[in-house]
Amino acid sequence: MTVLPALLTIFKPPGEPEEVGYRIFAPVDRFLERHRIAVVGGTALVAIAGLPLLTHLHFDFNPVNLRSTKVESVATFLDLRNDPTVAVNAINVLVPNLKDAETTAERLKKIPEVDQVSTVASLIPTDQAPKLAMIRGLARQLQQPLSAEDGARAPSDAQNVAALEGTADMLARLAASASGSGADAANRLTASLTKLAQADKAKRDAVETAFIVPLRVALGELRDYLQAAPVSINNLPESVLRQWVSSDGRMRVQAIPKGDPNDNDTMQHFGRAVQAQFPEAIGTPISLLESGRTIVNAFIMAGIFALVSIAILLWIVLKRFGDVLLTLIPLLVAGVITLEACVLIGMPLNYANIIALPLLLGVGVAFKIYYIMAWRAGQTDLLQSSLTRAVIWSALTTATAFGSLWLSSHPGTSSMGKLLALSLVTTMFAAVLFQPALMGKPRTVAAAQPVKEPEQVKVSEPAEV
């Protein structure tokens, strides 16, 4: 508004040698003029016929779908989400005591969408007495072999070589009288043991570190397992107990969904089913559902406020209610067709691309008001005018800038560019083709500028002598 006019004044660029409109659109202008009712009615019919599609328009409330599955962190999270023990998509209900936890667990198990229910009592093994008796019997049988190594001295390298050679010799004799895969494996092991016995001490020390040290750790864990004792809520580890019982004694009841945990419909049905019986329940599915509902309601309110504000501004500028409707109706038609096209191409709304809807209102009303002002001024043949050329290239420039986001490897950014480009194309067609037909002929056609004739020199008669 300031710099550009100043630059034009300074540099004084030459004007266009001829009209910069599109004369090729003259047949379209004539068609819209002759078949105005058919064009308006056909467009309205298409938009109204597609309204049932909007019932299939859904909001993808899962923010993970906005990330690329090729990213290692996302791929790992998706793998972990399939593990029911991780319980990423679990729903939790907090109850006052263990008795209420058991009652709540029974109610949750009756919900068809629930697959598994856990409480702190789920950590306590059942039938502990016979299991502990079996463990004690196994401990008596393994006590001597497991404890024999504790007091023994480490063998010398010569003893290790002798043990390797003796084992290799025994395996070779056994394999010689047998055949099959077992004999083949024994021969391979014999060769490896012989090669290790003939190697230097450093090589044998490295093999001991690789094989014997982990074996000792495993045997130590086995000795600990054989010392099992009765388990109750009172002797659970503090770190485990605090995941299920709060400091004031309240207990958590956990429910895991049935079906694919990566499916949005599964999470949605699961969250709604549990929330219907336990409104106080919390968890990832409920959090995502409520946040998605909040975002959608917020954008609906934003759209209403935007339309009301735009209508007020148009009324201030145009001062005619009919002209305000002629500006808003193409905008609403473009918005409806954009959403219907989203359903047809299978593109859901999400946290990223929903931002395109307010931008559609702002950019779209700009195109419409250009045409309404030209129409009020009495301009005809709008498609052939320089205005249409300006609107088309302005829309293409904006669609290219926003549409370049479509090429992003980030799914959320890509969907935002895709919806922005789609909305700009629909609003451009609504302005260029639908609005001129909707407006019809101007109330007062501007008079053509008369061609200025060259001035004629009047020759006076000679004076009389």
3D architecture notes:
It is a single chain. The protein has helices spanning about 5-10, 25-35, 35-50, 70-80, 100-110, 130-150, 155-175, 180-200, 200-225, 240, 265-275, 285-320, 320-345, 355-375, 385-405, 410-440; strands spanning about 90-95, 115-120, 250-255, 280-285. By secondary structure, the protein is mostly helical. Among the domains are: about 20-50 and about 320-440, no CATH class; about 65-125 and about 235-290, no CATH class. The protein has a four-stranded antiparallel β-sheet with strand order 2-3-1-4. Helix 13 runs antiparallel to helix 14 (about 355-375) and helix 13 crosses helix 16 (about 410-440). The longest helix is centred in the middle third of the chain and has 35 residues, at about 285-320. Residues about 450-465 have low confidence and may be disordered.
Features:
disordered C terminus; 4% strand; mainly alpha
Give the arrangement of secondary structure elements.
Layout: H1 3-11, H2 26-34, H3 36-49, H4 72-81, E1 91-95, H5 98-109, E2 114-118, H6 128-151, H7 157-176, H8 181-198, H9 201-225, H10 238-241, E3 251-257, H11 264-277, E4 282-283, H12 284-318, H13 321-344, H14 356-376, H15 386-403, H16 411-439
Antiparallel strand pairs: 1-3, 1-4, 2-3
H/E element order: HHHHEHEHHHHHEHEHHHHH
> Per the principal axes of the C-alpha atoms, what is the gross shape?
elongated
From the alpha carbons, calculate the radius of gyration and give it in angstroms: 40 Å
Mean pLDDT rating: 86
Helix content: 55-70%
Give the strand content.
Answer: under 5%
Total beta strand runs: 4
Largest sheet strand order? 2-3-1-4
| N-to-C span | 66 Å
The major pleated sheet works out as: 4 strands, antiparallel
Q: Please work out how many helical segments DSSP would assign.
A: 16
Poorly predicted spans: 448-465
